[in-house]
Design brief:
1 helix, Alpha-Beta Plaits, two-stranded antiparallel sheet, 89 residues, 17% strand, alpha+beta
Length: 89
């Protein structure tokens, strides 16, 4: 969550209200494509700072469309994410 300090923000469409922002990456196998909410997050797999911590929670996450995140390249350098299997004590 990115707090705004209560400040309103706007874009070409007009005022957006307070800028508190929550990025929903995934929610089970739910797919939502609405103006105010898109699940899974549309640029999630382009950001290693998002994907790599996700791999700590699930070593082989699969998107709602069946795409394995491990099959995707991350960032522009064609790096591929990898996480060893999670072992719980």
């Amino acid at each position: 969550m990115q707090p705004s300090g209560g400040q309103a923000r706007s874009d070409a469409r007009g005022p957006l209200g307070p800028a508190d922002d929550i990025d929903v990456l995934l929610y089970d196998e739910l797919i939502v494509n609405e103006p105010e909410l898109t699940i899974p997050h549309p640029r999630m797999t382009e950001r290693s700072f998002v994907v790599l911590p996700l791999l700590e929670l699930d070593p082989d996450p699969i998107l709602a469309d069946g795409t394995r995140i491990l099959d995707l390249a991350v960032d522009g350098d064609r790096a591929r994410p990898y996480a060893p299997p999670l072992v719980l004590p």
